[in-house]
TrEMBL record, chains A, B:
Residues of the HTH luxR-type domain: 144-209
BP GO terms, sorted: phosphorelay signal transduction system; regulation of DNA-templated transcription
Any one GO molecular function term: DNA binding
Keyword DNA-binding: yes
Domain Response regulatory: 7-123
Protein name: DNA-binding NarL/FixJ family response regulator
DNA sequence: CCCGCCATCCTCCTTTCGGAGGATGGCGGC
DNA sequence: GCCGCCATCCTCCGAAAGGAGGATGGCGGG
């Protein structure tokens, strides 16, 4: 047991969840909750004043969301370890978080002990992943020989309009480009998302939270 | 203050949330948390043995989900008041819950005091809605002169295949019906969802959590 | 017992999609 | 200074999608 307990910050927009997390960490001799933030901006401010060792953060928040907050947090304080604690285990969320340099990615259905251990592991420089996340990553490596390039901003713009029900012609008018250009963008999107029609494309994009 | 405090049951699949909720209600003289369940089945069993006055329940749970649990709960114990406490305020969730006869619908970002008051109001026979839910209902009544009939099971079956990228012909083969029948189902779906093509239809259906 | 809803099928016709293939100019990184 | 990515445009063409309109049988509730 170190003489100075781990300083933990909790970031979640739900008071219920913040309460629950704080409760799970009270009474532990080696971990102290030193701050709670309801969004990314608060988290950044509190990180400066409270100097936590580890941050438990939800990804989905109003205002500055999880990934943005993580990036800025790590830019300001490279020594702070961030554990993402979220309800979702979608593809896009996980990879966004991992590429933002988190020390862990846990689901909110994790039991108390797993959370404690994750915080200790993160503080010690280790990494923690929920088992479901782990299998998701394995799945990604195995059947995914295609690098699956991300659609360009312009392509996403087209896709968003398609999702709203626009025809190619309407997209063309809205974006001030020709209909054939719209088709070209869409064709590229199909390739990148591994689908072959617009309906499947919008579904794939929504599942990956691209639109 | 009544001589017997309100008996409250908490139903949520996330330990963190259960802890948080329990913490929010401990120390109150007029409300006691008598049971916690992690899914609908547990909730039904505990309702029988613990006889709560009010149940706080998440809608999204593994196994028997919120709406199913509410319906069976109210069938077994018509006197129990159910408050839905969820992260989402989507159209379909709200209306499913309301038609299941809940006493309240709150979002998890509700502050502590609002939860307390909601439980008291529900126990007293009242109804409570988050303000965001309220405005959602108002929106529904105002610009929605169309009753917006729900798609039939068969129509949803078609729509799910469409969302996976199937063409009408493929849907026809998969469901052992003719392509024209697929088109007819789709046409009806378009009308019901207020869209005019399949891409928009799958988006609308996903947003309303129909597929 | 009928009426309405559902699922199923049909034809005819127009519009749209999506594929194949190729071309151009701009811009940024190495 | 070149290469790659992006956005833009083009033609040709077949395959779908979608609209209009009508028809049938089954099944359940009032």
């Amino acid at each position: 047991m170190p003489e100075h307990p781990l300083r933990l910050m909790i970031v979640d927009d739900h008071p219920v969840v913040r309460d629950g997390l704080r409760g799970m960490f009270t009474g532990l001799p080696d971990i102290t909750v030193v701050a709670e933030a309801a969004d990314g901006h608060q988290a950044l401010a509190l990180a400066r004043s409270e100097r936590p060792d580890v941050v438990l953060m939800d990804l989905r928040m109003p205002g500055l969301d999880g990934v943005g907050a993580i990036e800025r947090l790590r830019a300001d304080h490279p020594d702070i370890r961030v554990i993402v604690l979220t309800t979702y285990d979608t593809d896009a969320d996980v990879s966004r978080a991992l590429s933002a340099g988190v020390a862990g990615y846990l689901l909110k259905d994790a039991p108390r002990e797993e959370l404690h251990q994750a915080v200790r592991t993160a503080a010690a420089g280790g990494r923690v992943l929920s088992s479901s996340i782990h299998s998701l990553l394995v799945d990604r490596l195995a059947p995914g020989p295609a690098p699956a390039t991300a659609p360009t901003p312009r392509e996403l713009e087209v896709l968003r309009l398609i999702a709203k029900g626009a025809s190619n012609k309407e997209v063309a008018r809205a974006l001030l480009i020709s209909e054939t250009t719209v088709k070209t963008h869409l064709k590229h999107v199909f390739g990148k998302l591994g689908v072959d029609n617009r309906a499947a494309a919008v579904v794939a994009a929504m599942e990956r939270r691209l639109i």
